[in-house]
């Protein structure tokens, strides 16, 4: 299914070519590449640098948007890594989608920054649905599980981003980030358990009533998608990556 996603091959091919370009470039080459990119603002990134996971507000109560412009090869590669990893996280059962992002890899720091921003964004969006389990139980069964599957993918993407962030040097995090990352992981784990329960119940109650060919094809594909989400968690457990990540606590 992941191969059908718009951008999967594009991001994958971009990473392949850009990693090779970075491996054969020296400082002079990078300076020249970044100078060219600076003249093409369509490649600029505007990132929101989160201090934490609660809404930031200024003294007058207006949300403090910390959008900062970034340009250069490092940020283009970082974006491709995060987007490609998110697709693998949400649509496959791979237990470590960001395993290739290591401290010695090109654009590591920029990638970690975008992952932190990604977790903050996904977490904020997921918190908009308060009492998730209770609300989903009121929806028609088929709509309920489709909603649960979509949210389950989003939760898993955020959790896989957290998995990568948990491998960073503890000194990288501010005290606020460190304590909130622990709480974010806990809440995402709770949401994932609730969503997994909904998906499991739906799979167990599937019947064999007659359907049209097109309906059968869609249903089979949807059942497979649900299975992928459940298999992803089983693989995480088997790989030892589904345990709680212990981010550093307040260092004061």
How would you describe what is shown here?
Helices cover 61% and strands 3% of the residues. The protein has helices at residues 8-23, 27-38, 73-91, 108-127, 132-136, 141-165, 175-204, 213-239; strands spanning 45-48, 67-70. A two-stranded antiparallel sheet has the order 1-2. Helix 3 packs across helix 6 (141-165). The longest helix has 30 residues, at 175-204. The chain is globular, with a radius of gyration of 20 Å.
Descriptors for this entry?
single chain, 252 residues, mainly alpha, 2 strands
- Biggest sheet strand line-up: 1-2
Mean pLDDT metric: 78
Total helical elements: 8
Q: What helical percentage do the residues reach?
A: 55-70%
H-E string: HHEEHHHHHH
Looking at how many chains there are and whether they match, the oligomeric state comes to: single chain
Q: How big a fraction of the residues is strand?
A: under 5%
Give the helix/strand class.
mainly alpha
> Spans with pLDDT under 50 lasting ≥5 residues?
54-65
Got a strand count? 2
Radius of gyration: 20 Å
Whole-Å distance between the termini? 47 Å
Assign an overall shape.
globular
Question: Would you summarize the structure shown here?
Answer:
The protein has 252 residues and is mainly alpha-helical. It is 61% helix and 3% strand.
Show the helix and strand layout.
Elements: H1 8-23, H2 27-38, E1 45-48, E2 67-70, H3 73-91, H4 108-127, H5 132-136, H6 141-165, H7 175-204, H8 213-239
Antiparallel strand pairs: 1-2
């Amino acid at each position: 299914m992941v191969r059908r996603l718009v951008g999967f091959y594009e991001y994958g091919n971009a990473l392949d070519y850009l990693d090779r370009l970075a491996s054969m470039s020296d400082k002079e080459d990078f300076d020249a590449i970044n100078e060219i990119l600076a003249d093409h603002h369509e490649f600029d990134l505007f990132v929101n640098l989160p201090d934490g996971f609660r809404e930031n507000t200024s003294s007058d109560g207006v949300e403090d948007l910390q959008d900062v412009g970034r340009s250069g090869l490092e940020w283009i590669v970082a974006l491709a890594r995060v987007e490609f990893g998110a697709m693998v996280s949400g649509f496959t059962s791979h237990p470590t989608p960001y395993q290739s992002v290591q401290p010695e890899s090109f654009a590591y720091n920029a990638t970690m920054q975008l992952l932190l921003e990604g977790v903050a964004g996904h977490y904020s969006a997921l918190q908009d649905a308060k009492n998730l389990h209770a609300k989903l139980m009121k929806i028609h069964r088929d709509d309920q599980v489709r909603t649960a599957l979509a949210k389950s993918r989003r939760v898993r993407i955020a959790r896989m981003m957290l998995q990568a962030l948990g491998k960073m040097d503890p000194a990288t995090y501010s005290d606020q980030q460190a304590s909130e990352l622990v709480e974010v992981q806990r809440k995402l784990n709770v949401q994932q358990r609730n969503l997994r329960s909904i998906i499991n119940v739906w799979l167990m109650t599937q019947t064999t009533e007659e359907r049209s060919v097109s309906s059968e094809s869609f249903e089979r594909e949807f059942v497979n998608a649900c299975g992928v989400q459940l298999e992803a968690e089983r693989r995480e457990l088997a790989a030892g990556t589904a345990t709680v990540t212990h981010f550093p606590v307040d260092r004061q």
